[in-house]
């Protein structure tokens, strides 16, 4: 199993494509450039089984419908943000993109609890990690020692909390109680920027000291 980081959309948000030897794939946060992403997936001869959304801010969802239409695969999102995909005010696109506001179809599956999620050969552990947004979810692949954290934790930084539903104390609590309990060699596949590890952030992240 391997994964590929693809910066997409207006803010170059990291989409992640996780694939197995059978060319089946999971797409995490397809943020934009839908035609480009679909073409790349087809060129790689991949068959997406699902789209996993860490949260529903506009820069993480822009290519969801393109991928769904091309590959007939479902999208997963936490129930706290069930209405955000179809509401440009909630997903922030009306504020930041004006006439290019994003309105897409509702999620096919709503996440309601922390529980195992198995799709084909892909076995994830779900962590509810609110704070950046109320429905932020992190997807952990234990066997591959990687967690897809969206905009919760970055290399030497953390997610912003000044958007609707953001809560700084809640974000820090999510990071400390969920992410920092993972093994230190766990790769953190962030929503923006370069991947990091849990150990690096425990040692170097200035936002996590003194909590």
TrEMBL record:
Alphabetized UniProt keyword annotations: Hydrolase, Metal-binding, Zinc
The protein's required cofactors: Zn(2+)
GO function terms (MF aspect): hydrolase activity; metal ion binding
Record's keyword annotation contains Signal: no
Cross-referenced Pfam families: Lactamase_B (PF00753)
Residue ranges of domain Metallo-beta-lactamase in the record: 12-192
UniProt xrefs under InterPro entries: MBL_Glyoxalase_II, Metallo-B-lactamas, RibonucZ/Hydroxyglut_hydro
PANTHER family: HYDROXYACYLGLUTATHIONE HYDROLASE GLOC
Protein name (Swiss-Prot/TrEMBL): Hydroxyacylglutathione hydrolase
